[in-house]
Design brief:
- By secondary structure, this protein is an alpha/beta fold.
- Helix 1 crosses helix 3, helix 1 packs across helix 11 and helix 3 crosses helix 9.
- The longest helix is centred in the first third of the chain and has 22 residues.
- A 5-stranded parallel β-sheet has the order 1-2-3-7-6, sandwiched between helices. A two-stranded antiparallel ribbon has the order 4-5.
- Strand 2, helix 6 and strand 3 form a beta-alpha-beta unit.
- It has one domain: Thiamin diphosphate (ThDP)-binding fold, Pyr/PP domains (Rossmann fold, 3-Layer(aba) Sandwich), CATH 3.40.50.
- It is built from 11 helices and 7 strands.
- The radius of gyration is 18 Å and the shape is globular.
- It binds thiamine diphosphate (TPP).
- The site of thiamine diphosphate has 17 residues, from strand 4.
């Protein structure tokens, strides 16, 4: 199958992407309030990048999650499940009402993703630092098979403090895997502090370039710039590409923005209502939208 025969099932225009990103942020807050546990800041900050991926870039068929000709995406930062699950639900891999069973015993959406339980999840993750190696192997194998798929590793900046991540980066550069694209949620935040205070990774782009990668830096909330970076990654030959997406944890919620305290906690019902008001809805309205779909 030629690349031209494959494609994203939505290919939303800019207005469509903006609207979907807003809906996805409403999903995230609502499912976290309902679950009473989970990670808020990373998923909110990564929502614009993930929306571009799922509603413009990736080739997949929601009704056939294991479609052999699909692109593959690996959420190495497993803890950001609210954004992962919202995208899969909004894309049609399962009903949106499943989001209201996030982290519940009778649901299929575990706190960290399980490829045995959830359609559209390519790999179980949560132990950080493994996803890029898995993506590397998949990209290498796909090239050996002559498969036109692209492979995306979705990684955090904190994971770049782990040696295993850099082994995969070195191997992918050496093998010139231009079917591999890493996207980093570069929010400078990790579990209980700022990345640069804990163990600095700057100069980030230069490090990747010295490992023979094409490195693109982008504002992770600028939808046209994200799409352009994805286009550049596809066009780059002879090297893997990393997109360093500068994001703001908790974006755009006024009381969450850039605060590492929001890495791993859910909003209380009161905080959820405030956040949803900033997103133009209410818990009652959005939870009933999810439950009715
Ligand atoms: C190998 C490993 N060590 C520790 C943890 C515990 N842990 C969960 S999230 C996290 C850090 C999160 O930082 P980052 O990955 O940058 O994510 P963000 O805060 O931006 O969501 C840690 C240390 C883990 N999941 N895996």
């Amino acid at each position: 199958m030629e690349q031209s025969d494959r494609g994203n099932p939505y290919r939303y225009d800019m207005a469509g992407l903006q609207h979907k990103a807003l809906e996805i942020r409403r999903d995230i807050i609502t499912m976290l309030v309902e679950a009473k546990s989970g990670h808020t800041g990373g998923p909110m900050g990564f929502a614009d990048v993930a929306t571009c991926l799922f509603f413009h870039e990736l080739a997949y068929k929601p009704a056939e999650p294991k479609w052999p000709d699909r692109d593959m995406w690996f959420f190495s930062m497993g803890h950001v499940t609210p954004i992962h699950y919202s995208c899969l639900g909004e894309a049609g891999f399962y009903p949106l009402r499943d989001l209201m069973k996030f982290r519940k015993f009778d649901g299929q959406l575990q706190g960290h993703p399980s490829c045995l339980d959830t359609p559209g999840v390519e790999v179980s993750s949560g132990s950080l630092g493994q996803g890029l190696s898995i993506a590397f192997g998949t990209a290498y194998g796909s090239r050996m098979d002559g498969h036109p798929r692209r492979v995306y590793a979705l990684c955090s900046d904190g994971e770049h403090q782990e040696g295993s991540t850099w082994e995969a980066i070195m191997a992918a550069g050496h093998y010139k895997l231009d079917n591999l694209c890493t996207i980093v949620d570069y929010n400078n935040i990790q579990i209980d502090g700022y990345v640069e205070d804990t163990m600095g990774i700057a100069p980030f782009a230069e490090k990747y370039r010295s490992f023979r990668w094409n490195a693109i830096e982008v504002d992770g909330h600028d939808l046209p710039a994200i799409l352009d970076a994805l286009r550049q990654a596809r066009a780059c030959k002879g090297k893997p590409t990393v997109i360093l997406a500068r994001t703001i944890m908790g974006y755009p919620i006024s009381f969450m923005r850039n605060l590492y305290e929001w890495h791993g906690k859910p909003p209380t019902p009161e905080q959820g209502e405030k956040a949803l008001a900033e997103l133009g809805t209410t818990y009652a309205e959005w939870s009933s939208r999810l439950l009715s779909n």
